[in-house]
Amino acid sequence: MNNNIKTYSQAARQIGFVMKHHHLGSSEVRLLKKLIQDSYNTFGALHHDKIFLNLGLWDEKIYSEYKELNFNFSSVSEVQDINSQLLLYFLIRPLIKNQFFNKRLLDVGCGNGLGLKASAELLKTNYALGVDLVDRLIAHSNDHFYLQNKVNFIQSDAENLPLENESFDIITNLESSHLYPNIEDFFSEVERILSVGGFFCYSDHYYIHKDQSTKLEKFVKESKKLKIIQKTDITKLVQASLYQRLIVNEESFYRAALSIIGHEPNKILQELPTLAAVFGLIFLPWWKIRFKNPALQWVAKVARKDKFWGKKYYFYYLIQKVK
């Protein structure tokens, strides 16, 4: 793998390499984590630094619930994306409904900090901490969202967190765990850091080489401290978001893609299929991947043949620490 990343597709290929490896020796784990840092430093440089980096969710009922909160998302970011907001809301929805407020929140894999900042406001937290492996993203987070004694961000490793036992009431993890080389170590850290009575809100797209949901359920079954409160397959809701973003609003997607990769024809040819895949195109059912724009039709053909994900499954878990 080349650590001197210059393009979106190079970064994405490294992430693909990372996702296919797990349960390795310590030196290999260090290499994979270095590749993650390199790749996401590139993504962070190419994306707007105050935009959500998740696949989003769409559901009329969830949308109506979210609207009733009258949450002013523009106070967090001027870049509006209702689909990503709804996925974040769904992640912490049970806690909002039960008014699990004025607690300590930890977001592992916080990215550029938007999710933590919005969650902290929605949950009215006493304190919120975001953790991410990628230094560029943590720098962006602190630049935009740091609030003394209220909202903070640190660079650290999800599998080895420098935090005290039972020091947080809520732990969130969204679209991050598929990158972890030894995901059971992360689950152990969640169990250790979460306070008794606290909740772990966890959602990600399933990837066969990681098998996150199976490993989580095995871990919880063997644990005497954790209990699954809710388990939901939200694949169709995430696919509804992707269909809106990429197919219905294909021209907006195309403009966004060109803003990242540029307008040079050879660059478009090299980069556009990979960027579309990262944006979630290959997570759609193959029969829905159809564009009207001739400039995108060949990308659809590539995506329909892509077998990268295998089983298309997006899971959500609400876990409580009971002992």
Report the CATH architecture of the domain at 60-236 and 311-321.
3-Layer(aba) Sandwich
Which class of secondary structure composition applies to the elements? alpha/beta
CATH homologous group name of the domain at 60-236 and 311-321: Vaccinia Virus protein VP39
**Compute the gyration radius: what is it?**
19 Å
| Share of residues in strands | 15-25%
Low-confidence stretches: none
Q: What's the CATH class of the domain at 60-236 and 311-321, please?
A: Alpha Beta
Mass-distribution shape: globular
Describe the structure.
It comes from Legionella londiniensis. InterPro entries: Erg6_SMT_methyltransf, Methyltransf_11, SAM-dependent_MTases_sf. There is one protein chain. It contains 12 helices and 7 strands. It is an alpha/beta fold and 323 residues long. It has a domain at 60-236 and 311-321: Rossmann fold (3-Layer(aba) Sandwich), CATH 3.40.50.150. Helix 7 (183-193) crosses helix 8 and helix 11 (265-278) packs across helix 12 (294-305). It is globular, with a radius of gyration of 19 Å. It starts with 7 loop residues before the first helix and ends with a strand.
